[in-house]
Amino acid sequence: MTTHVRCGTLFAGDASPVRSDATFGIGDDGKIAFVSATTDAPPVGAQDTVLDYSGLFVMPGLLDVHTHLAYGNAKSEEDIDLYQPMEFRALRGLFFAQKVVAAGYTSICAPGDAGQISLSVRNAINFGLFEGPRITAAGRYLTTRQGLTDWYPTWIGVPDTSIGRLVTNKDEAIEEIRVQVKNGVDCIKLAMDGVQTREDGSLVAAFNQDETTTMVEEAHRLGKRVVVHARGREATLYSARAGVDLIFHAYYLDDECIDAMLKSGSAIGPTMTFPRNIIDFTQAHEPAAIKGRISDVEREYITACENLQKARRAGVTMMTGTDSGFAVTPYGEWHAMELEIFVRDLGFTPAEALRCATSVTARFMANGGRIGVLEGGRLADFIAVDGSPLENIAILQDKSRIRHVHIGGKRMQIPERGYDPRQVTDRSWANWSDLYTQERVRALYPARRHLAAAE
Ligand SMILES: [Zn+2]
Q: Ligand 1 mean position to 68 CA, how many Å?
C-alpha cells in the first residue's frame, strides 16, 4: 500500500530546485518510496490512498534544535528547577511537545533538562504510546561554579531536581557523561559559560580548554554529540577548538573563533528568537525590564547580528532553534520566528533559511540522516502549508496556514487544548516586583487617602 501525496509546490529541503506538480509516495514503513513529477508517478493502486495537497506548499517538517521540553514556559529559573516534581514535569513536557508538532515542527532537540525527563518523553513517543515530535534528548547540563544552571548561592548548591549537574573536576565530569550515556541520552550538554564577567565585561568561560577537550573527547568516544551554551568569546573559542558539534548563541565570536569552527566543523545555533522576544515582548512592569535587561539584551542582539553575519559569510553552518520553554518563548508559538530572523537580520535568503531549518539542522539530530529531506528512503516527515514561505517566510508562524503535519507518513491530529499556567507552571512564591515605600505609594496612588494626613 502506498500513500500518494500530490503537492502544489514541493520544497525538498536540500539544494534541489523547487518543483510544481510533484508527487511522492509513502510506503507502509513510513518512508518515502518515490518522488516524481505527478504525470510520471506510478499508477495509484486499488489499495492506495491519495492525499491531494495540490493547492499547498509541501516541505519537510521543521526542526528546532533548542526546545527545552521540561521548562514548562517558565517565568524564572526557580520555576524550571524547583516548584514541580519531576514526574509532573515529564507529563507536562509531553503535552507541550504536542503543541510543537501542531506548529509544524516534527523534530526537536531538548538540549538540557532535569533528570531523565526528555529521554522519557522521547521514549514514550518512540514506543508509540503517544503522538509527538522526534526528540533528540540530552540530560542535565554539566556545569561549574562559573556556568549557567549553577544559579543558586554556594550554601544552597545545585538541587537534584535542577537542570544542571555541578561537576568540580574532570573525573566527575567524565563519570557524569558515562552515567548519562548509560541512561540513553542522544547528546551531552555543557554550560560553557554563564553570567560571570571580568572587569572589562568579557564573559568568563566555565571550563578551561583542557577540561572542555577532555569532556568532548569522552562524549565523542562514546558516540554522542556535544552541544554547549556559549555566549562569550572565550567559551565559544574553547568549544570550537575542542570540536563541539553545536554551539548555542556564540554572540561574541571573533575571527579566531570562526577559524576554529571552520577547522573543527562546529555549527552555531544562534537562538536569536529568545533575545528578540525579550526585547519585543517584555512589559515595563516586569522584573526583566526593571533590572535593565531589555537594553542589555538589545545591545547584545546588535553585536550578535554583526558577528553571526560574519560567521555565515565565512561558511560556518547555522541551525535553527529558539530556546522554547520560557514565558517569552512558549511551546508551539515562536519556533518559526527564528527563520524570519535568519532572513531579516542574519542575511539568509528564504530558501537558505528553510534549508537550515530542515536538512541542515537534521545533521545534529539523532538519526538525522533519515529526516530533513523529502527524498526516497528518508522518513516521510512533512508539512503542507497554505502559501509560500519562499515569498514570505513569516507565514510559517501562522498556525492556521500549517494545514497538515505528517510524521513517518502518519497525519498528526493534535487537539487544540488550553491550560491554566497558574496551575501548570506558576508555583513561585514571588509576589511583588516593586517596593512600596510611602514615597512610592504616593507617586503610584496620588488620589488615594493613604498618608494624606502626613502631608
Ligand atoms: Zn537553552
A: 7
